Amino acid sequence: MKNFLNTILLLFLVQLANAQSHVAKSEYARYNCRFAPKGWNNAEGKLMCPACAKENEDARKKKIADDKAADEAAKIRNAKLKAENEANFKKKQAENAEKNKVTEVHVAMGKMPATAVKKPEPPVKKVPSKPSKDILFFADYPGSMSMSGKNLNYFLNENGDTVLKSKDYGSTFAAFGDNKNNFPKNIGIVILKEENTLTNGKTRNVADIVDLKGKRLFNDKSISTIFHLMNDYFVIGRSKDFGEDSSWGYNYRRIQEVDIYNVKTKKTITLDKDRSRVELYLAFDHHKLEDEGLKPVLSRRYSNYDEDIYCIDAAGELVVKRFQGSR
After folding, report:
1. For position 129, what pLDDT does the model report?
2. pLDDT the model gives residue 2
3. pLDDT band for position 105 (50/70/90)?
4. Using CA atoms, how far apart are residues 27 and 97, in angstroms rounded to an integer?
5. pLDDT in tens, 151-177
6. Which of 220-227's residues contact partners 24+ apart within 8 Å by CB, and which partners?
7. Which regions of 43-187 does DSSP assign to beta strands (E)?
8. Within a 10 A sphere around the Cβ of 134, how many other Cβ atoms?
């Protein structure tokens, strides 16, 4: 009986010793121990090493205690800071109240001569300020041929102040960025909420150019496309039978009537029709013309693939160059 009890005690002590130490040796492969050899069969999901489990539990309890201590310290700091802020605020209030105290002083004054009393000057009547001249309007990008804007109903000046706003505007177009195309001053392009019904039953929004006071330049319901070329030149498009087909802001494939209008000289250049419509593109890849001192701004393409390139010369005049098509 005594030997049996000694055996039981010995087994208990061995188990206790094993529980307090890591079991990373190969013969204990059934345990998942952090000290197991690399590549050994200590895959996750096996029995946790008792020493590893105890260390994990101790670390967890320590983190809880540390977090609680840090939270208590933060509460103490916040309470102290709040008290200091309240004290500083009350002190500042008292200082301001002391500064703002009005001290009454009674002074006995003699009788003033009648000639010394001046009559109060009449108030100056303020005249409402009028918009000054030579304001550069800013809105959407001016070089785009696309008439789909950002739904702005106002224009800005160079300081970012609103200079013209109207509930009738659906979109606005004017100078943008460094104004590389020299957008004229005191005017801007608007897409109005007003619509024009075409012969095919569809509708197009009316486009126009407005001045500083919002006065419309054309007041023509048939105009549905206006975009800026360069300097004082604008393209005016009308289509009574169908809507213009614009693509990515770089071309119009079908406009029935097209004018190039100079807002300064009031002169109009009307483009002849080609199969009842006109195709317009932004002018690209004409370096030869640039070498001649010309700035290509617009390409008009015909059905036989002939092409007219509209350019601005050094004097600011519009020059047309004809190129023969390849077909």
Report:
1. 45
2. 53
3. very low
4. 84
5. 889 999 988 899 999 999 999 999 887
6. 221/194, 221/196, 222/196, 224/147, 224/196, 225/147, 225/252, 225/255, 226/147, 226/173, 226/189, 227/142, 227/143, 227/144, 227/145, 227/147, 227/173, 227/189
7. 47-48, 154-156, 162-165, 169-173
8. 7
